[in-house]
Amino acid sequence: MVSFPKLFSPIKIGGVQIANRVVMLPMGTAYATAIGEVTRKTIDHYVERARGGVGLIIVGNVSPFGRIGLNQLILDADWYMSGHYELVEAVHAEGTPICAQLNHPGRQIYPWVLDPGKDVISASDIQTSFLGEVTYPKPRPATIQEIYEIMDRWAEAAARAKKVGYDMVELHGAHGYLIQQFMSPYTNKRTDEFGGSFENRMRFPLELIKRVRKAVGESYPIGMRFPSEEFLGPEGITLKDSPAIAREMEKAGVAYLSVSCGTFQSADKFNDIMRQPEGWKHYLWETIKKSVAIPIIAGGGIKHPDFAEKMLALGKADFIGLARPLLADPHWARKAHEGRTEDIRLCISCIECIHGSTKRRQGGGARRCNVNSETGREGEFIPIKPAAVKKKVMIVGGGPGGMEAARVGALRGHDVTLYEKGKELGGALLLAGVPPGKEKINWVSDFLKTQIAKAGVKVKLGTEVTPELIQKERPDVVIVATGSRPIFPPALAGKNVFTALDVLSGKAEISDKKVLVVGGGMVGCETAEYLVHHDNKVTVIKRTPRFAPDMEIHNRYALLQALNQAGVVLRAGRAATEAVDGGIMALDTESGKEVKMDADVVVIALGATPNRDLADALEDKVPELYTIGDCNEPRIIMEAVYEGARVGRRI
């Protein structure tokens, strides 16, 4: 019996047969060369998702107009076609149809890829930002001649896509890019035939579809990434407007609509964040589906196969679009089809895969995944190869790095024992999942615990590992993953002074108090939200002006909004110097004076330092010694999982 029969039923887009309803949504990967050519890494990435059982792959953000992103694919000239032939052939070899999404960013072109002096064009001269964080250059309105030149180049790229074998093309009309900039009254203030009335604002996308259709022929499917709602207020596209837009696109011959929402100004809506419930966009998909007869792809925030099945059964969509879930687990579809849902590594919506993440500011690196180290390393990390020599492996620390090392090591055939001094596996994840909106982090531990049990890893909880125990066990390999410990300046010690660790672990139960959180990084701000949800009045102090600077930008935006709505006071320019009765003394960095800040309870969140005691004691004492995760340097999940995976493959 097939698990999830709706999800795994066949369907057609135009004349293209799709084996199931799971679509890999388009994402830029930064796996191309600096000048936009397909690489082996590009091919390996998409082939692995094809092997993972998706029904259709849409290759994201392919440019018909030169460089629009760092290491993004380009198809604006014939000499790029060779690499695309190779990509299409490799995906087709797995039996999977493939689509090329073609895009022009308009005013949302990344500033760091612009050549000096190059103009940015849009429908009008309306400037934008990314969640109020990154300001983009002010565009100028495109001339009539430029508008038609853009359409023609788009059509030429579509013809190339058809020629190399792509089964269809998608035009990116969502997320605030150029097509949407012409459609939206928020960004289109033109007074010529391309602006003003609904008919005029629709002229650009409809004429573009017409020209692409002429270039590719009548039977070749053209899809549209569709903006159901901009979340920019009544001036923008709203759900009242978008059904009419959908109907016009259907009349123009679009084969499907991939329904999304938002712009760079409201990027937390299309790049789903941790605190949003699964499938919160269902009302958007449903509204557009009721407006047209062509297939609808529901995109964004879907994590579980049972939820996907429900959306299809309720008639809210025809396809389920997965983006980051297929970075977290390229075999999501195959595992769901086989009923192995417990083996799916779920996306936690941390958004560290986005190019502007905390790890790779301003796009400076290829796309990686916080929970899956194989993403972007498919050629090197897949498959996991059996070890030539089987070893006795002792892993100390049951956090994400330790569990991943144990999983990989056991799959390679080693005799692996994982030691954890606490009562439960998870390490820092156990506390990271406590603050409001962070519950999805628990999925990481759940997956790893399931997989190490299946791989035969022996687990010893409540066991503190000492050099003497290691000497007794005589392992061939020791992997130390002992994490970090909170920084606690002695001058801040005092009555009613706790660490964020004390609070989130439940060791310090605080309610109905005036609380001062010292430290405004991610942990301090998340702890503040936790405290305010427990009926406390909370103030956070920080020496520098930017709060939660170490946090991924989308989730930071939502956290700061939540703190503001909850009445948490964020006070920059204050540095705690010592604890005193009834609060702390703090340096006012602007005046240079010390001031007393009153509080019933003080919570210290000043970061962490590596816990290297065991690692240092074992130097030159064991045959092979490795350190991974926060005991090297406190960082995010991504580094711990990667280092665990890397060492697991090395031993």
List keywords for this structure.
eight-stranded parallel barrel, 22 helices, 3 domains, 29 strands, five-stranded parallel sheet, single chain, Rossmann fold, FAD/NAD(P)-binding domain, TIM Barrel, alpha/beta, 31% helix, 651 residues, globular
Write the layout of secondary structure elements.
Layout: E1 11-13, E2 16-18, E3 22-24, H1 40-51, E4 56-62, H2 81-92, E5 98-102, E6 121-122, E7 129-130, E8 134-135, E9 140-141, H3 144-164, E10 168-172, H4 178-183, H5 198-201, H6 203-216, E11 222-227, H7 242-251, E12 256-260, H8 267-270, H9 282-289, E13 296-299, H10 305-313, E14 319-322, H11 325-328, H12 332-337, H13 378-381, E15 392-396, H14 400-411, E16 415-420, H15 429-432, H16 442-455, E17 458-461, H17 467-473, E18 477-480, E19 484-486, E20 497-499, H18 500-505, E21 514-518, H19 522-532, E22 537-542, H20 553-566, E23 569-572, E24 574-580, E25 583-588, E26 594-598, E27 601-604, E28 608-610, H21 613-617, E29 624-627, H22 637-650
Helix pairs in contact: 1-2, 3-6, 14-16, 14-22, 19-20
Write a structural description.
The protein has 22 helices and 29 strands. It is an alpha/beta fold and 651 residues long. The protein folds into three domains: 11-379, Alpha-Beta Barrel (TIM Barrel), CATH 3.20.20.70; 384-486 and 610-650, NAD(P)-binding Rossmann-like Domain (Rossmann fold, 3-Layer(aba) Sandwich), CATH 3.40.50; 490-606, FAD/NAD(P)-binding domain. The strands form eight sheets. It has an eight-stranded parallel beta barrel, surrounded by seven helices. It starts with 10 loop residues before the first strand and ends with a helix.
